[in-house]
UniProtKB/TrEMBL annotation:
Gene3D superfamilies: HUPs (3.40.50.620)
Enzyme class: transferase
Similarity field: Belongs to the NadD family.
Primary role: Catalyzes the reversible adenylation of nicotinate mononucleotide (NaMN) to nicotinic acid adenine dinucleotide (NaAD).
Catalytic activity annotation: nicotinate beta-D-ribonucleotide + ATP + H(+) = deamido-NAD(+) + diphosphate
Pfam families: CTP_transf_like
The keyword Zinc-finger is annotated on this UniProt entry: no
EC code(s) of this entry: 2.7.7.18
Keywords: ATP-binding, NAD, Nucleotide-binding, Nucleotidyltransferase, Pyridine nucleotide biosynthesis, Transferase
Domain Cytidyltransferase-like: 6-182
Name of the molecule in the record: Probable nicotinate-nucleotide adenylyltransferase
Pathway(s) of this molecule: Cofactor biosynthesis; NAD(+) biosynthesis; deamido-NAD(+) from nicotinate D-ribonucleotide: step 1/1
Record's keyword annotation contains Transcription regulation: no
Amino acid sequence: MKLLAIFGGTFDPVHLGHLSVAWEAAELLDAEVRLLPAGMPPHRDAPVASAAQRVAILRVALRGQSRLTLDTRELDRAGPSFTIDTLHELRAEQGERPLVLLIGADAFANLATWHRWRELFQAAHIGVLSRPGACVALPDELEREVAGRRVADTASLRALPSGKVIELAVTPLEISATRIRELLAAGRDPRYLLPGGLFDDPGLLAPYRH
Ligand SMILES: Nc1ncnc2c1ncn2[C@@H]1O[C@H](COP(=O)(O)OP(=O)(O)OP(=O)(O)O)[C@@H](O)[C@H]1O
Ligand SMILES: O=C(O)c1ccc[n+]([C@@H]2O[C@H](COP(=O)([O-])O)[C@@H](O)[C@H]2O)c1
């Protein structure tokens, strides 16, 4: 069965750093990758743009291809967007289909701070997006949970609905939404850090202009 992977973020706004790693993960896993904008991200301040504005940007950013799709369920839920709740909803919809939670290597190192974090391993596989050759040390309690779950090939993910951890070597781009918001607020046009289509409609990036 085709893998279903999810990639969550504040996406305030989505940029080419997000899209390129999501695309590479989709190719490496031969998966559909759903981008899930967080309604109320659990570990940070509220986004600058509204949910509707971030979705409008995502829709334009995802135009013209079908591997990366948009899932807005976290925006429709009240309260913090806990990933475990999202995975339980997806499991109820998808049955035994293998699910892969995509997480950047730095965020993965902090996984033990997430809500009901141990349950994440029962709910999905985890795909850790890493710089080729990089090695991020994990805190002991996380390492103990991950040891024994690591696999190197995607066939192992296809064989089970959840429970494995795979490292996915992707090409990181030094782009952050924080920097993009700074540039837009300063009246600049970070044209080659964002999907080009966003500049065709000046209203899309207006929430970040001052
Ligand atoms: N340039 C990038 N390359 C690869 N992954 C990224 C990049 N920027 C962010 N990510 C990852 O994408 C996910 C969503 O990121 P998020 O929406 O917080 O973007 P951000 O650019 O880090 O935003 P901000 O600067 O506002 O914190 C996170 O898992 C984050 O680690
Ligand atoms: O579930 C949690 O406790 C949890 C804690 C921190 C982050 N997350 C999710 O991780 C994704 C990336 O978060 P962020 O803050 O880097 O945009 C986003 O989908 C968040 O909902 C989830």
